[in-house]
Structure formats: structure tokens, C-alpha cells
Amino acid sequence: MGIKSFQGIRKIVKKEFEAPILVADYMTTKLVTFRPDQSILEVMEKFAKHHISGDPVLDDNGFLVGIISEADCMKQISESRYFNQPILEKNVENFMTKNVETIPHDISIFDAAGIFAQHNRRRLPVMRNGILVGQISRKDIVIAALKLSGHNWK
């Protein structure tokens, strides 16, 4: 019996996953940052102007000391009405989250998704050697997953 089609020994091609999968590939690097001494009113104005819902709070040396979000502002709005006080009186330091969970820049978006699943956070500051280099949100992770959906995840 003859051989109909012989192509010879085939070279084994190793399929490599070349799509970017690190947090650093999808994080936001142009952040609106706040200072602990800024008023809550200024924060709310920047949230509205830049269409954001939260960002890091940095000290005078540029180190991360907290994060402020719309939820933190809601606390101020609620308290100002309850105690009949103007919103202008308070600053970021009184309402920001001080114990901030962060993630390293070089973890995969899959590991970041696991961190988001464990913690009830909408955004996480991204750090490199103790320095803030960006921020990633749950939405960024979803967008990254959509971009990778045509690839095999191994």
C-alpha cells in the first residue's frame, strides 16, 4: 500500500502566549491625585470635571497615604446634612481610606482579578518598588479580558 501524502517529519511548533497580560499593560498612569489637606468640595469638583470616581492621596513627598472615592464623599455629604454643617469645612484626610490595598505592577491581570474578587474595591493603586506608578480598576481588568478572549488562557 502506497503513501498518498507524505510531508516528512513535522516540526513541533510551540505556541506561545504573546498577548500582554500584566497589570502594567492595562493600568492607568495619568492619575488625578489629591493631597490630605485638600477640601472634600475640591475633590468632588475634580471627580465631576474628570469623570472619575476615586484616586490616590499623596503626601508632599509623593508617597501614597490613602485613597479617596465617591463613597467617601457620600459620607461627608450625609454627615454635613445630619450635623447641619457646610461641606467646605472638612478635608480629604478626614474621609480618605488610609489602609490602602495595593498591587505590584508585574502581576498578571488574572491574579489582579482574584484580588478584586477577594476585596470589595473598585480600584487599586499599582506600585513599583514602593512608588505609585498607576492605578487599575475592575473595568480595566474586564477590558483586558475582552482583548484576550481570542487567545487560549493557560
UniProtKB/TrEMBL annotation:
It holds the Pfam family CBS. Transmembrane segments: none annotated. It comes from the Bacteria. This is CBS domain-containing protein. Signal peptide: none annotated. Coiled coil: none annotated. SMART domains: CBS. InterPro entries: CBS_bac, CBS_dom, CBS_dom_sf, Diverse_CBS-Domain. Keywords: CBS domain. Residues 27-83, 96-154 form the CBS domain.
